[in-house]
Fold this sequence. Notes:
Number of domains: 1
Radius of gyration: 18 Å
Largest sheet: 7 strands, mixed
Strand content: 25-35%
Mean pLDDT: 94
Order of helices and strands: HHEHEHEEHEEEEHEHEHE
Helix content: 25-40%
Low-confidence stretches: none
Oligomer: single chain
CATH architecture: 3-Layer(aba) Sandwich
Structural class: alpha/beta
CATH topology: Rossmann fold
CATH class: Alpha Beta
Amino acid sequence: MKNTEVAAHWQSNAETWTVYSRAGYDKYRDAVNTPAFLAMLPSVEGLAGLDIGCGEGANTRAVAELGARMTGFDIAPAFIHHAQELEMQAPLGIQYSVCNAEALPFPDASFDFVTAFMSLMDMANQGEVLAGVHRILKPGGFLQFSILHPCFVPPTRRTIRDENGEAVAIEIADYFDETDGRIDRWMFSGIPDVVRAGLTPFSVPRFHRTLTSWVSMILGCGLTIEAVGEPMASPEVALAEPVVADTRIAPLFLHIRARKPIPKVFE
Length: 267
């Protein structure tokens, strides 16, 4: 699938995505993924950061609120419009632009760190993106990203529930099927059925890779993996937001932090 097609899908998703994520219906993001991501993030105060696939800017703003000087970009112009609009209303000093992650328009060694919240798995050539990240990171800088867990969210996944509707197991298949642009259609689980009935589902191109492929791409571009996370909802969060309770059975997300080594100086 070409990047123009990927961009078209995300452009079509952007309006509904922005409205309902900002209304609090992206429960997995707000209750599980983002809190765990930020808890794993090293101190970024005073550092220059780039957020890849920033969407409408919610997570970019969360990192900026930790004291980072943030730049964010997305392939969908509508997302950037909404991100810039919010930045004008409540400035955090974030610079936004429309950009293709496979051709990063930034100088070498220009960022202290890079984040990517749930965006890399939706890109066709992750190896090229990671190579570009390595190029624009300063020596000693890091990339931290979250993706759908390749082991527990392969192309086929089904939550098995008991007679009370509680999640008790996860059924998975097609792990080795490295898809290239298969379209997944879904909507935020937290949206009430009466509202959901009037909405067009998101159209999300999927580029599933095995765990081996992810690790190989990261190491192959010269980054060193230093931290891994598999967040799950606490009992309290699962009780408050039952839709995310399945993350207590098997992880939905995988978090990885990888660092660009500092070249050794030989005397």
